[in-house]
């Protein structure tokens, strides 16, 4: 349940919502690790001229370093992408949808379009389409 001045997500009420919260937290941890790593190297390079011998700037070729800074971000991206695709697959509802809602935001009002399947109410497979415009 949401409350005023809430700093976190509300409690999840479904399994896809719980998975999205876990995905958010995982991405946030990875972003913070990248931020601290880049910040550490930036401080190291900025402080190096004042402390002799801290950084060896004469390195011109390091195959291990090049492989590391190529593969490490790719592992992070594969982990984020695979969990994102898993969440997307779990949120797919398929054909068993009761109704569709399309919300369009205009400059001064919202437009709500509902498409209802009337199979359970009528013998025909007709669709009804109506639009509501709400001005604020």
UniProtKB/TrEMBL annotation:
Q: Name one Pfam family in it.
A: COX2_TM
Q: Which reaction does it catalyse?
A: 4 Fe(II)-[cytochrome c] + O2 + 8 H(+)(in) = 4 Fe(III)-[cytochrome c] + 2 H2O + 4 H(+)(out)
SUPFAM superfamilies found in the cross-reference section: Cytochrome c oxidase subunit II-like, transmembrane region
Positions of transmembrane segments: 27-47, 67-89
Q: Name one GO biological process term.
A: ATP synthesis coupled electron transport
EC code(s) of this entry = 7.1.1.9
Q: Which UniProt keywords apply?
A: Copper, Membrane, Mitochondrion, Transmembrane, Transmembrane helix
Q: Where is the Cytochrome oxidase subunit II copper A binding domain?
A: 96-136
Classification via InterPro entries: CcO_II, CcO_II-like_C, Cyt_c_oxidase_su2_TM_dom, Cyt_c_oxidase_su2_TM_sf
The record's GO molecular-function terms, alphabetically, read: copper ion binding; cytochrome-c oxidase activity
Q: Where is the Cytochrome oxidase subunit II transmembrane region profile domain?
A: 1-95
Q: What membrane topology does this protein have?
A: Multi-pass membrane protein
GO CC, any one term = membrane
Chief place of localization: membrane
The similarity comment for this entry is: Belongs to the cytochrome c oxidase subunit 2 family.
Q: What is this protein called?
A: Cytochrome c oxidase subunit 2
Give the classification, highest ranks: Eukaryota, Metazoa, Spiralia, Lophotrochozoa, Mollusca
